């Protein structure tokens, strides 16, 4: 019987989309929401896949350090990077691709979740990343086991 849990997190960040035909080519920000769906091999003695609090601490720790109140920019966006670097202080997170909701969701599922959930016994299989209340991207993967 498939069993999973989900927790929702929020953070503020700036970005821009290189090559976008409209306003989103300009530096701007969002109140992002990220939903992380987690499953595990078995429930613990209490009946949990993973304590919601542990999930919160792991994910929020990473978000606070890396994405919250940063500019998330493509590492090839030299002009955008230079603009943000010229302000002091600044926080930048460089992605190896344009920071669309889709690419940020993929990065979160493929890179961030395995790192922060290592040793937890749980694994993230789906991420939904909301850029606004109306727009989100969703990515999921099959978990073998
Ligand atoms: N598939 C995607 N499309 C767009 C993304 C994205 O991540 N994935 N991102 C953006 C921009 O970041 C933009 O800030 C959000 O777009 P949206 O709200 O749709 O912009 P509008 O042009 O509709 O804004 P209005 O203020 O309502 O005119 C764009 N697309």
UniProtKB/TrEMBL annotation:
One Pfam family matching this protein: PTPS
Gene3D superfamilies documented for this protein: 6-pyruvoyl tetrahydropterin synthase/QueD (3.30.479.10)
Pathway: Purine metabolism; 7-cyano-7-deazaguanine biosynthesis
Organism: Rubripirellula lacrimiformis
Domain of life from the UniProt record: Bacteria
Protein name per the record: 6-carboxy-5,6,7,8-tetrahydropterin synthase
Co-factor: note: Binds 1 zinc ion per subunit.
Family in the record: Belongs to the PTPS family. QueD subfamily.
Gene Ontology MF terms: 6-carboxytetrahydropterin synthase activity; metal ion binding
Keyword Zinc assigned: yes
Enzyme class: lyase
Catalytic activity from the UniProt record: 7,8-dihydroneopterin 3'-triphosphate + H2O = 6-carboxy-5,6,7,8-tetrahydropterin + triphosphate + acetaldehyde + 2 H(+)
Entry cofactors: Zn(2+)
Listed GO biological process terms: tRNA queuosine(34) biosynthetic process
UniProt entry tagged with the keyword Zinc: yes
Residue sites binding Zn(2+) per the record: 15, 28, 30
UniProt keyword terms in alphabetical order: Lyase, Metal-binding, Zinc
PANTHER family (UniProt xref): 6-PYRUVOYL TETRAHYDROBIOPTERIN SYNTHASE, PYRUVOYL TETRAHYDROBIOPTERIN SYNTHASE
The EC number(s) this enzyme carries: 4.1.2.50
């Amino acid at each position: 019987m498939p069993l999973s849990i989900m927790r929702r997190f929020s953070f503020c960040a700036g970005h821009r989309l290189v090559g976008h035909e409209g306003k989103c080519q300009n530096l701007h920000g969002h109140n992002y929401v990220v939903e992380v769906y987690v499953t595990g091999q078995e429930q613990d003695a209490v009946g949990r896949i993973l304590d919601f609090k542990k999930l919160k601490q792991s994910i929020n720790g990473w978000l606070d350090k890396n994405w919250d109140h940063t500019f998330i920019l493509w590492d090839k966006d030299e002009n955008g990077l230079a603009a943000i670097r010229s302000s002091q202080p600044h926080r930048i997170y460089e992605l190896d691709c344009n920071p669309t909701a889709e690419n940020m969701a993929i990065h979160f599922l493929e890179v961030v979740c395995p790192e922060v959930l290592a040793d937890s016994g749980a694994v993230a299989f789906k991420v939904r990343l909301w850029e606004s209340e109306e727009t989100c991207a969703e990515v999921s993967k099959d978990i073998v086991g």
